[in-house]
Target: UPF0045 protein
Amino acid sequence: MIVAFSVSPLGVGEDVGEYVADAVRVVRESGLPHRTDAMFTSLEGEWDEVMDVVKRAVAAVEARSGRVSLVLKADIRPGVTDGLTSKVATVERYLADGGAS
Model:
């Protein structure tokens, strides 16, 4: 499964990068395949391991903030591995073909 999630503190002002870094650190230390961009962190693995990382990332932010916002989207597709790479590669292939189907 692939989970795209965003966790951020509420009530701490506009500069939340330091708090978000705490969450991303948890993801990086997990050893699971992941990517972080300006809006979300995507994480790939089995249900229990992915959800455990999300829970720990939220806890890391919550430890320094009394209120936390979590946005989560999941692609649950048993048997698929390396989806973080293969899904993007498919789109890139279509782009390289000039849009031909």
Remarks:
- DSSP finds three helices and four strands in the chain.
- Residues 47-62 form the longest helix (16 residues).
